[in-house]
Structure formats: C-alpha cells, structure tokens
Amino acid sequence: MKQKINWNLVLVSLFSTVLTLISIILVCYSLFQGQVKKDLKTTAKVLAANGISRLAAGEGAFNDPELRITLISADGSVLYDNDVVTNEMENHLNRPEIQEAFQTGVGESVRKSDTMNMKTFYQAILLEDGTVLRVSTEARSMLSVFMEVIPYMIFVLCVILILCVVLSHYLTSQLV
User: Fold this and answer.
1) Which of 86, 127, 132, 142 has its CA 20 to 30 A from that of 50?
2) In the 8-state DSSP scheme, what is residue 91?
3) Quick one: DSSP state of residue 87?
C-alpha cells in the first residue's frame, strides 16, 4: 500500500511538471510571436513616415541584417529590396500580406520554412503614393525553441522528480 501511494504521488507530480513546462513554453512562444509582430508593425510605420520611397530612387540604402525591407509597386513588381537584386525577383501581387495591404491599407502574414526551422513574419503598409512597403524578419520556429529548451526541461524535471520522491516517502510514512 505504501509503495502504491508513493508511486501515484510521483506520477502525479511528474505529469503536472511536464504539463506545466510545456504550457510555459507555449505561452512564452505565443508572447514572443506577438512581440515580433508588434515590433515589425512599429518599424514599418516609422519607415513609411520617413520617406521609404527615397530608397527606391537610389537615395541611400538600408543595411540591417535582421530586417528585410521591400517596396512593391501597384502592379506587384519590386521597386526596392535591401536583400536581393530587384530585377531578379518575381511579382509580389499574389502574396497574402500584399493583397491585404492593397485592400485594407495594412497586411500581415507568417510563413514557415520547414528546412530552416524558421518563421518569417511580414508586415505590409499601403503608402500614399500607391506602393506597398513590406518589412519582414525571421524568427525561430516553435520546434527549434523547444529543442533548445529540452535539456533545461530534463534538468528541472529531474530535480522536481527527486523532490517528489523524497516528499512522497515522507507523506506516505505520515499517512500510514
């Protein structure tokens, strides 16, 4: 009887610990994604307010490896991109964030790269001159974050498991 109580207490604690760790990762990753979207929206607004069209005219360049900035004309052709040569790029009119920006003034989307374990977040704003400014950045996928956290989770799980075994023995001896 004593051993059965010990075992059940350890199983309950193990289950609740695993469930808690997974829940924390899901909540934190969701908050992280929200922050990335918020930051992109702010960056796009700042760039739109500060005359991004000058970049398309060749007046300066934007060199931030974390951000990709694209200026798209009303017909979908790329006027400026800080990462790729524009004449080699395909038409962007079929991209969901671009379509949404032309319809509502603002568009956003997230695309997942299975090969890179990354997600690309896009924010697009329709500018007064009829072009669309799109800002994007990459962030790690949920799977890659989870894989990095696994060693820490195992450590925490082991510590909690040891504590639970000790406490379950103590509580069981008090009960029986």
Assistant:
1) 86
2) P
3) G
